[in-house]
């Protein structure tokens, strides 16, 4: 199994410790954030009668997230 491009951290935060330095914390990946946004749109479009289709919805959401990440690599 290959690891897909996760886009890096979606909302990185840097903690400043003053003279002791700093640390960057990444949180969720951009891929996960994009999939969550896509999932919300999919569920909204399908309606509550299809909530039980969580596995197919999640699969499609990650496919869309991967497509969005791939589109970022295309140079105009």
Any descriptors?
76 residues, mainly alpha, two-stranded antiparallel sheet, 2 helices, 49% helix, 11% strand, elongated
Describe the overall structure.
With 76 residues, the protein is mainly alpha-helical. The chain contains two helices and two strands. It has helices at residues 30-46, 54-73; strands spanning 13-16, 22-25. A two-stranded antiparallel ribbon has the order 1-2. The mean pLDDT is 88.
How many helices does DSSP assign?
2
Biggest sheet architecture: 2 strands, antiparallel
Strand order of the largest sheet: 1-2
Question: What amount of the residues lies in strands?
Answer: 5-15%
Strand tally, please?
2
**Overall pLDDT, averaged?**
88
Shape annotation: elongated
Decide which structural class fits the backbone: mainly alpha
């Amino acid at each position: 199994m290959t690891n897909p491009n996760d886009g890096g951290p979606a909302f990185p935060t840097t903690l400043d410790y003053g003279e002791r330095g700093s640390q960057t914390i990444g949180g969720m990946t951009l891929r996960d954030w994009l999939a969550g946004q896509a999932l919300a749109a999919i569920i909204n479009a399908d309606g509550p009668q299809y909530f039980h289709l969580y596995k197919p919805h999640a699969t499609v959401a990650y496919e869309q997230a991967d497509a969005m990440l791939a589109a970022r690599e295309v140079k105009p």
